[in-house]
Design brief:
Length: 258
């Protein structure tokens, strides 16, 4: 609540901040960019950012980030201004810490170890960094942690309802970060590895929770951006300047070993 930037945001979170402003200005009627110069620059040639951060769908232009996180934050922005943009992040962090505490209890860990885990997560992970800016990462981490918690409940107690919740919370995390699908797959395969005889049950119950929110996400993405995986995915695939798989591996290599 003591934000020295006074609303000035840069990078990815700056673009999401613009999305929030545009949603509010439109009266929640569209996710398209609000460009004051559109009448004299209909092709957006002088717009400050280009592909892959900006894409045209039909006759409208959109910022490439999924609109669901900005939409959730728009009411808080109207209520408290820029400070309201941080509420959802902080609540996500607190709820994630609560789930980590519950995980520790589920696996019957000592309180000292649980407390250490909460401390290290709060100050030694990227969660803290992303809570200092306006970003969807803390919210996505909360949903996937909830999914992991219920996968762990099945691992410990073999309760079928927990598989449904694992699938549901995992699917919801995809609204904010598509790469969470790899965590979902890892958790599912881990359960199958531990309980190979329950392969069909694990798959069916998890799918029951996963299928509706996932299909609805595909529908929303296609309805808004004409691609089931969203505009960001579509623009990244077609942008020649975006690093491919080998390029991304090279970046990771340089970051780790250079």
């Amino acid at each position: 609540f003591f934000n020295p930037a006074k609303g000035v945001q840069f990078g990815d979170f700056g673009l999401m901040y613009i999305q929030v402003e545009d949603i509010v200005k439109s009266g929640y009627s569209t996710f398209a960019v609000h460009y004051k110069g559109e009448k004299v620059d209909s092709e957006y040639k002088f717009f400050p950012f280009k592909k892959p951060f900006l894409g045209k769908v039909g006759e409208k232009y959109y910022i490439d980030f999924p609109p669901y996180f900005p939409l959730l934050n728009a009411p808080f922005y109207q209520w408290l201004g820029v400070n309201g943009l941080y509420l959802l992040n902080y609540f996500s962090l607190l709820l994630t810490l609560f789930l980590l505490y519950k995980l520790g209890k589920l696996f019957e860990l000592e309180n000292s170890f649980i407390n250490l885990s909460l401390f290290l997560y709060s100050f030694g992970m990227t969660a803290t960094t992303y809570n200092l800016v306006f970003h969807e990462y803390p919210l996505a981490i909360f949903w996937i942690t909830a999914g992991f918690y219920f996968a762990s409940v099945y691992f410990k107690k073999e309760r079928n309802y927990s598989l449904i919740l694992f699938g549901f919370f995992g699917a919801v995390s995809l609204y904010f970060r598509l790469e969470m699908v790899f965590v979902i797959l890892a958790c599912g395969l881990g359960l199958v590895f531990v309980y190979p005889k329950n392969f069909l049950k694990i798959g069916i119950y998890s799918l029951l929770g996963f299928i509706f929110p996932f299909v609805y996400l595909l529908y929303l993405n296609f309805d808004i951006h004409w691609h089931p995986l969203g505009l960001r995915f579509a623009l990244t695939l077609t942008d020649e300047s975006t690093a491919g798989l080998l390029g991304r591996i090279a970046i990771i290599r340089d970051m780790l070993f250079s």
